[in-house]
## 1
Amino acid sequence: MTAEEDRKYAGQTLAIKRHFEPVMTEPIPARMYLKSPGWIEYARAAVVLAVGIAIGLAIPMLRPAPAPLTPMVQLPIRAARAHLVYSPEVRHPVEVDAKEQDHLVKWLSKRLDVPLKVPVLTQEGFELLGGRLLPGNDGPVAQFMYQDPAGKRLTLYVTPTRKGEATLTSFRFAKEGKVSVFYWIDDQCGYALSGEVDKTTLAKVASLVYKQLES
């Protein structure tokens, strides 16, 4: 390369340097130094997830608590459960046998503090086996048990009504599992006739019970 060519290339290099020097020497913007590290994005995602979980857990706590079951709703449930517990018993289905019916009625009437009657259901094919005292929501309740010749059993659950409690003289029907229940409430007691029988049969017996208790 000649001396002339050297001078020519040197001049071009100097010209390029002068042209781009302002850009080459420009300070780096501060925002470039503040660029978030990669782990920040993961941290943000974790916070969002945690907040979402906390809200999800808090929502049920903010919902109003379910209203307690009313005595009217509890009556068929408790009667059906008592039926399921005691009706399968072979040796001790009742606490006091039907042979001591007078004693049974006086004893349970005293414990419930209401005068009780024991319906006679022989015309529907059911004989009294006896009865027992059971715990209720607010005190003792009574259960009378009946049986037909085939061994099918019905139970009459009797619970005193609280003062001021709404009455329901008409029948209502409920089903708790395999147990059918007809129930009603009068001025003194709530009654529930339970059995693992068809609805028609239970309705006929319940009508007979109602007539005798209200007479």
## 2
Amino acid sequence: MRLKTPYEDPNILVIEKPSGILAHPDKTSKEKTILGWAVKKYPKAELVHRLDKDTSGVMIIAKNSKAHEFLKKQFMDRTIKKIYHAIVSGDVRNDRGVINKPIGRSPRDFRRWLAGRGARGELREAITEYKVLKRFTDAKGNKFTYVEVRPKTGRTHQIRVHMKFINHPVVCDSLYNPEGVCPKGIKRLALHAMSIEFKDLKGKTIKIESPLPKEFKKVVE
């Protein structure tokens, strides 16, 4: 596995995760993972956060336990700033919005999470801000919206769940939008981690950006 590493210092590594690769091994999969790749290079490496398998973009890896605790605290304190870009189904009415809806388990599918009515188990606070970048229609009349998304919390599948909650799920999402139409040229979950901003162990602010995937560019530009 070859990964681009747009930032590295003695304690922290930032990689560009491709779509289709697990960040962390699960109980059943024997696929190659980001963590497995990192540990081969840095035996004490730990993941600070995760991206879903089919999400691409910037991801932080701690090279040692000291860096892991330092970065984990920033995530817990919500001082790390993350920006995602996504293509969602339909014409999002408002140019900007905030989705403040707790997330719990889906009662129908153990793989899914749910915001709003019907969510089960512990409901955890989840806040997502979004801004419309572009609205467009394909040759068949299907409407889509290109959005910038800033999650203020870090719940599992948060962006995917919240966008579905407002009836504009991310396109090509087999779990939350299985019957939705994909724009021509998009064959993967249309969610990309564009940038992440954090402090290194010396207190310096670091912001790393990842270019928009080529298939996204062709659709939205």
## 3
Amino acid sequence: MVRIGLVGIGFMGRIHFLAARGLGDAQVTAICSRDAAKRKGDWTNTRGNFGPEPGQVDLAGVRTYEHLDDMLADPNIDMIDICNPTNLHPDTAIRALKAGKHVLVEKAIALQPDQADAMIEAAKNAGKLLMVAHVLPFFPEFAFAADAVRSGKYGKLLGGHFLRVIAKPDWSAEIGDTNATGGPAVDLHIHDTHFIGLIAGVPQSIFSTGQVDATGAVNYLNTSYLYGPGGPTITCSSGAIAAAGRPFIHGYEIYLEHATLEFMNGPLTVYTADGKSEKPKLLGGDDPISAFTVELQTAVDGIKNGTEPALLSGTLARDALVLCHREIESVKSGKILTIR
């Protein structure tokens, strides 16, 4: 059995804890939180934008730690699942790797690419897995799209547009803190850069326009990903710009040689060259927590197999972070920028 130590009991930590209940041959055996109430199971202040209403959690049989070093000294933990704020990811992950633990770290991998590089190097030196929890490819609609591109079932990828827009979150003080999360252009938009990198690879260059708030953070952007002659034509709109009454919207329209895939806050539809359309039956349920269970199970299976799962690749996560930073720079400079 893979024994999991969960670090950080906020909204995402609670989602990971709930998702882990569905794992096979793995379970959360310890948690780490500086909050004494949370260590006693009072998780009422971990509300987010989906999932069940938070409340009291039964921690019977789960060891609780106030300090990370005490958790890392526990020999009965195999993997550290890091769900604390993004600015804390590099230090937490590197300390865990040096302590001989495998690591799953919630997106974004870090705030800066050089921090991500240090994390990847620490994993190599420790001989342990560093996996980054980008959940989007585990949602049924995105898993279908990735498989369609990868398999060539409908021919090659010609282009696509991605959309991810929210109102400014009022359920989390930290999500709007650029120093803690990177702001919407990292914390939110990295979902898109990661998935685009997964299906199309890293572009040669990018051009972005957007909105910059009073703090200097980019809170909304439109990006063209430039792959050169013969490459796909891909664009994305992402950010926290919608009015408070506008529900969160995310999705895509993906153009393949012989089909168009459309998913925009409704059932996935496949339009084919013969003028027909279908709504394919997707694996997985409507409960978003189930996608996190599949994500965590993929990490557990990677530990058992001793192989980094492709969808949890640290390098893919690092490349997604680089794209976000180049897009931020492009918004502020007004220039087309190459990706190095």
## 4
Amino acid sequence: MRRPPERLVLLGHPVAHSRSPQMHNAALAAAGISARYEALDVAPERFHSTVVDLAREGAAGNVTIPHKERMYAACSTLSPIARRVGAVNTWWVGDDGALSGDNTDVGGVDEAVRRLFDDAAIPPNLKVGVLGAGGSAAAVVAAAESWPSATVRIYNRTGARARALCERFGAFAQPIDDARALSDADLLVNATSIGMRDEAAPFDVAALHDGARVFDLVYRRGETRLVRAAHARGLAAADGLAMLVEQAALAFERWFGVAPDRATMRRAAESG
């Protein structure tokens, strides 16, 4: 039986903004587990050597921007959903000493969107507009596959990435060349890092229809400019905090085989 990890890390660049350490450490304390969780800022050129060292330690953890696809390539064993998404955000060392990867972002997206619809059933024929085409965007598309008769359109500054992502998921996902074409979206999702470090917004919510909802995977104190603008327009909107908590709780279950106290995690994340 695989020994539970004693060291947990978040790999990203940057990671100073992350609330994952306080959230996970609160959950670990509540569960009486002695492991500790820390954030490591790892530049792309140092990613491979860092992962090799962590694997030797028997560590486990999460991955955030811009390393989710790098970790996918580094893992020897992948869950079916990680293979579908083509990105890993949760990893651990298996019994054979090799890296195993999963993607709990998909479950996090699904939970956050259901909350955005007030925990009611997600309506059929939802038009989903996605900004971005990286690992986080792929998690959004994978979640949308389970929503009844949903369709997805994807805009990315590099059109080739949007087209490649859509090809993996089939006809229900289509690339577009102009973000303004997302103005009729019922659910607009920002899956880029825009707004993480400044007051930039990736889309003008004035273009959306009155019943649209806005979901920004970015989270920051005081909410992002995109979410605030949506609220000012009277639209239902949320940042990535609910997704952060749920994907973290699912990762905790992968590492330790028990569910964490989600309420404790949420309080720690909100106070971060």
